[in-house]
Structure formats: structure tokens, C-alpha cells
Model the fold of this input.
Amino acid sequence: MSVDSKDYNFGDIEANWQKFWDENKTFQAEDYSEKPKYYILSMYPYPSGEGLHIGHAINYTAPDILARYKKAQGFNTLQPMGWDAFGLPTEQYAIKTGTHPRLVTERNIETFRDQLKKVGFAIDWDREINTTDPGYMKWTQWIFLHLFKRGLAYVSDQPVWWCPELGTVLANEEVIDGLSERGNHPVERRKLRQWVLKITGYAERLLEGHKDLQWPDSSIRLQKNWIGRSTGAEVEFSLEGHKESLRIYTTRPDTLFGVTYMVLSPEHPLADQLTTEEQKVVVEAYKVEAAKKSDLERTELAKEKTGVFTGSFAINPVNNEKVSIWVADYVLMSYGTGAIMAVPGHDERDYEFAKDMKLPIVKVIEDKVAQSKGEETQLPYPGKGTMVNSGEYSDLESDAGKTKIIEDLESKQLGEASVQYKLRDWLFSRQRYWGEPFPVTWVSQEDYERVVGNADSPFQEFLPEEAVTFEAEGKLHFALPVPKNQLPLELPDVESYQPIGTGESPLAGVSDWLEIWLNTETGDSLPQSAPKPDGDNWIPGTRETNTMPQWAGSCWYYLRYCDSDNTEALIDPKLDQYWGVPDFYIGGAEHVNLHLLYARFWHQVLFDAGVSSCPEPFPKLVHQGMILGEMEYTLFEDADGNLVSANSMEDGDELNKRSLEESEVEKSGSDWVLKSNPSIKVDARSHKMSKSRGNVVNPDQLIKSYGADSTRLFLMFLGPIEDMKPWNTQGIEGVSRFLRRLWKEIVTEDRSINPKLTDGEESNQEVDKLLHESIKKITEDIERLNFNTVVSQLMILLNHLVKVESYSKKTARIFLQLLNPLAPHIAEELWNRLGGKDSISKTTWPEFDASKLVADEVKIVLQVNGKHRGELMVSVKANREEVEKTALKQERVQNSIHDKTIRKMIYVPGKILNIVAN
RNA sequence: GCCUGGAUGGCGGAAUUGGUAGACGCGCCGGACUCAAAAUCCGGUUCCUUCGGGAGUGAGGGUUCGACCCCCUCUCCAGGUACCA
Done:
């Protein structure tokens, strides 16, 4: 099995063992194995045309080490791989080149798979999935139907981000500062028919579920903030001269006495009614202006508050005071009730607005901290405190007052406690071709009711309690689910993937697919271009033209790996019982508020539907840090060619940048300066790898020059997996040298095994001790994912082995087992040459022998007043008195204490003796 | 603004419970081998020093016999988020 070579010929060795693993299915996960299961998952890649990135390599190497280690520990490990293959870049490439996206996708996957195999991952390739595969898509659509049936999917004509350049609508998350996340094109508001998923219905569950998750605290906090639960009250304000009342949401009912005006969002339904004749022109103009304003302008730094008076007044329910009602765009329609009570004394935004509009400001909360210092409460004071100027509630503390006011309002039916979330429902449709079609047919009300009335029809399974409808040109359309027997609903082949410009997807132009005759008995369909078949079971229908966003497929892919070929069910319940959900999930922290939240939502629905037996999809989550490009040094020049120090730049300065070589700069204090002119500071930092910056490191190139093992080792040696760390190509020499040294230590010039390796047990005690220390440390470090120190320890061990006269083959084999998770190819090869049968990947992880770790002597560090003053080797049995006596005789200790009196001595057995003297 | 992380030699990083700061590696310096170079091997490498020592983990203070580690204040960097009432 081994390669016939006297040198460390990593190219042949790696190809040989990769083939071996493939052919022997070494890393196949076994369904229903007796062994305990361990399911390791990494976020699957989007197979872009650019191929594998060094970030992918590091992302997949860490879990691969864990997978190989767990396998050696006796687990039935599952490490799968798949493709998140729907998506915009592929579609855009198709538009540009006229190639079918399916073809582009296949090609890209081919490349990615080859590249991943060349890194040598212990993946069970038999379970590979592809979100664009109809056999996969079927179940994505099936899950959508579950959401549909449960009333969690609805259609809404709503303003969405429309990107003219991309010809599509984007989700809030895909718009950053008014520009598209992909491509940085400007976006604008446009109203379009959209599918929306009611993720807000699961907000509470999503928060509750957090308590059982082993996630980084910061990620939990991020999701918590994103969901943004707040508690307060909804309060009714009656309106002067109107029957209706105005409902507002506040988190601070304790400030009700401080209300001096009210604000409606410009889109508020009562805005028109409340506008008096005299104010009509002003309010109308303001509303038009606000509607035109993009969110880009709303989020612009200059947050000057604007607004206009409606001419109407509201009555404060707690004190019957009359307050003016305004319209202002600092109040959002999409949060709370779209209207607020303004308390300028205790809210910064209201304060700012009140100042500008010269509205009254009242203090109703006393800042106790200021008070205790004898100072006045500074307004606006948004904190809690003692209520003042609040009638019968005065002198109560904020929290107590809050509770009491809510109670009183509730008893008078003027308000009630209320919980609000920042989280919005999930805009779930895209106007694209390359995505999952919605399994929905639009039919007339009459036809819909007929289907509903037919208890035997295959449509029944997914009919919602309340019909999903939308109105267009005065006609109401009803959403009929595509029955399970008709899934998957596949994409039609089209000539052009170009957006048709109306905002609708290219599918809207494919009439043979779009307009159908639908059989209400069987669910079958025919294009309307064909004559209508006989019988009144055939009704006309129109398919949904939106497609699902890329998130859809990734919301549940981890379940499919457990049963990737099942055509009858998403997952066999028995396999769900066996594999459950991943025991370990790793991926970028940037997915916390999107993919990870969406997937949790879907999973909870699938749990409710009985598809999964686990309440949460990802019980343990780890993020890997980004790899930055190599350190770059930048020099700045002004327009006249004068050098400018990096720290003295102003924002508005127009400066030319020039890249410098490392040899042109040096460090001075904490700054980097120009060698030729040390008064000029240069900018020194690592940047995110990007094509445009030209600092992308290609893993193929590294593997070609150094081998997959060196590459893997180096990626891990770079630093802790969760940290962001800069790349440094030179550094790979170190680990490469280490593997070459290892090779030469075991294989001699004539291809035989180095004669210094002996048969039988290890007879060198020092070697044995270090070996067992290494087993212990490496085992613990892998468990803690500290792979960088695993590499260090292996280096320390090898350095020692190289130095000693001889050691046993047994020791060498254990070394290879410890190395195997990180550098599996060379480990397999040398294992084999040392006479190992089969594959090292099938061997059991070595255990350390604690008895080998104890030494006869220990080193005691001597300190005087906490300062290092030498060290002492003493027997482990030495008692305190002996150590103290010997220590005091030491010359360096004597020198430091001779003119002082010893006050006390602190002794930590086996570690330290600190003599306190003055 | 708010919420998270983080800051240790020229560089990446180590120090697991408060106990020798700088493991391991890169780079650099010196040496061996070589006609020479590469590769390899050996030694050195935080700073200052009168060679006794002294200083030192972003800055300043505190707790402690003893602090990279705990507490307070501040600076800078990175990420997230932002009129959410």
C-alpha cells in the first residue's frame, strides 16, 4: 500500500492514500452502528466559479481533525459534505455566458469536490447532497408546504428592496447602507407581491431554546439582540373629536405623566383622519417626502428629526391632559403600533424633536445618582429612578410605578402589558430563476372552494386553515398547495435567465410552465397551450413565479445527510433517532443572525411536525476565525507628493497610497515607520482576502508546493481556530521542515527503517515520559480545539526523538497516531512502512499512562519578594523544612536577603518558595 | 451611540486554577558542510546593563507574598448593531 520512494514525496504519497480511502470507503459512516455516533458538520460551501479558498481549507481542516480523532476514540463518526448550489452568482454567470445554471453548477461542484479531496478530508462522500438536485429540492418544497399549512407562510404586497442593477429584490439583510451586499449597487423601495414567513411567531421559542445551546456567549447575545424582545405596555389615548382612539406602545409606562405630545409614523392608518383641514397640505407634503426617502437617507449620520403637526389632539389617560399629535418619520410603522407617546424629558429622540419643535419638556423621573450627589437631574434622563410630578404615583420607584400603572390601565381597559420584538417576518421570495420554485398554484376562489370541499383530494394534506390570497386587478387569487405526489415542482428550461424587468422572475415569461390546467382529483397538470382535457376536474391555474432564497436549502441540509437518498421521506424516523442532529457544528459567525436563526426556526417547525425528534438543530456551535491576507505596509502622499504620517490623516484628505516592501519599513515604539524617514508613520495591517486586493492565497498552489499535510498542519499552527489571524506564506516552511525531519527520522537513504528504532517496549525512560506527557496534552488540546498547540507538542516530541540515541518502534507508531488527525497522509505512509496493517485511521487512539508522568525530582522556583532568585531540584518527597533550609543557603537568595529580616515564607509544594523579607 | 471580542519580542502565537512571561515556529544573526549556492545540521535571538543586576504582557491605578491572568479608569483595534419607543 505504501509508495515506493526513499524521499518524502508528498505528491505521490497523498494521491496514493486519498485513492486508498476512496476505494476502501474508510470514512463511511455506518447507519445503526453499535458504536456511539458522533456527527460533525461544517457549513457547506457555495460552489462558486472561483474554486476553493484558503478559508474553506481552514474551515474544513479543524472539524476533520476532530472527526479523525473521534473515530480513533471509538465513535461512529459522520462527516458529510454537500453543496449550497442555488444562488445569484451562478445565475448571473448564466446570464452573461448563456450557459444553463445547472451546467455551471455541475462544473463548479466538480472542481470543488476535487479540490476538497486533495486536502484529504475524512468525508463520507456517499452522502453528498446538492440543494439544486430535484431529489433534494422536493423536500425543501415539502417543508415549505408544512409552513404553508401551519399558517406560517403568507403573501403580502409590501415595499421591498429592489435593486435595478441586479433586477431583483433583496432581503433587509442583503442591503448594507443602502447598497446591495453583492456588488454594491444602489437599491430602492418598490412594492411587490412577496412570500413572507412568520418567524415572529417563533420569536419566543427561539429565545427560550437558547438556554440549551452550547454556543459562544457572544453569538447567543447577538441572536438575542436581533430578536430584540422588549416588555412594556400598549396604551389607548382617546382623540379629541374622534371616536377612534390611538394605541401606542411604550416600554416606560412609568413616564406617562411626562407625555407632552404624540407621534404617528407617516404610514400610520390614522394619519389622514387626524389631519385637520388647515394642516392637510403640510402633512400630505411631508408624507410624500417621507415615502420618497430611502432608508439610506433615514440612516444617514445627520439624524435631524423632522415632522409636522396634524392639527389634532389626544387625551392622556392618566391625567386627562391634552397633547398635540404629530407625524414624523423617526417613528417606524413596522415596530410596535406605529405610534408613540413622546416623553422628551426621558427619551433622547423625543427630547431632540421637542427642542427643535419647541414643545414642552417635563421631568417625571428623578435621577437618584445625581440626587445623592446633590445635583439636579439632567434631562433627557432615560434611566430609571423615582417618579415625580406623577399625581398619585409620585414617589414610587420606576419599576413599581410601571407595574401599578399597567394594572390600573388594564382595569380601566385603557391599556395592557405587551411584548414586542425587533425581529421582522422573513421575506422569503426572490425574483430569480435559479432557486426552488414555490409549490403553489394560484386559482380562482370558486375553484379553491371546490378543492377544499373535496375531502379525498391530494390537496388536503397541506391546505391551511385560512386561505392564502392576494388581490390583483380587483380579483382575488387563492393559493393552492402542490400535492406531495407532484413534488418536486421543477424549474422549466428557459432560453434566457434575464430578469424581465417588471420585478418578476424570469419564470413569469415561461407561459407553458406558468399557465396550466390543473386536475383537482389527482394534482396532475398540463400546459394551457394544450387543449383543456375533458371533465370538470380540470381547472385553470397559474404557478407562482417567485423562487425561494438561498437560505431555504441550508435550513435543513444537516437532516438530509442522515438519509440522503430517501425518496419516500425527508428522513427515515429510525435514522433520525440514530443520528439526530450534529453533535458539533462549525461555521462563520457572520451567519448567526441569518442562516443559524432561519435554520432554528425551520427546525422547530419540523420538530413540531414530528419530522425531527430533537428540539434544536445545532446544540454545539463553534465559529472559525477569518484568515486575513498578508501584512501590508502603506505609505500616504498628499496631492503635492509630500509624505503624510498615517496617524495625522484627516477624513477628507485626498491622499495617494503606495504599498511598501517589508524591507522599507521598521518598527519604532508601537508604530511602523519608513526606514528612510523615520518621522513618517506608515499604515501596517492585514486586510480581508479579496480578489480585488490581490491578496488571495490559493490552496491548490500551497498543496502543490508543500503538500496537503503541510498545508493542513500550517493552517492549524497559525493560531486558535476561533481567532482572526493574518496569513504569512513564509511560515509554512516551519511545518514543512517538521514533516521532512520526521520522514528522515524514520526512513533511511536505502528505504529501510532507521536502525535507531528498536523492537519491543520503550526502554528510554525520558522518551517514555515525554511520550506520555504528549499523549495527555494532545488529547486534551484536541478536545479543546487547541490545534495550534497540538502541532507545537508534536514538534517538541520529534525534536527530542531526533536527539536521543534510540527509541522503540512502538513509540514511533504512537507518534504517528497522534499526528494522524492533522497530517493523515504521511501518518498512513509511515505507519505502513513501520509494518502497520491496514490503515492507521482504523487504529485506536493511544491512552497515556499516568504512572509514567511522575518524576523523582521536582523543580522549585525560588523567589524573594516575588522576584525570581534561582531554582532548586528537590526530591518529590522533600518536606517544607528541608526545602526552606536548602533555599536559604543559595547564594542568590542570600544576596537578596542578607540585609533584611524574613517576615514569612510562602511554599507551594512542587512549585514555588517565596521568601518575604524587608 | 450601544453590545461583543481583543491588545504579549521584528512576526504568528504559548503560559489550562493567581506561581520561572515569551513554549513551538517564522524571520534575523553567527558557525559547520560545500568550489559555490540550495537543502541540512549546530548555536544565539524581549529590552537596557557598569554583567552585580534592572525593566518588561496597550496606558494609569488597585487587590495580593506573588498579577498577562482578578478589580477600577482610560486609549486603540476588530466584529455586530443602530431613530426598535
Summary: The radius of gyration of chain A is 35 Å. The first helix of chain A runs from residue 10 to 24.
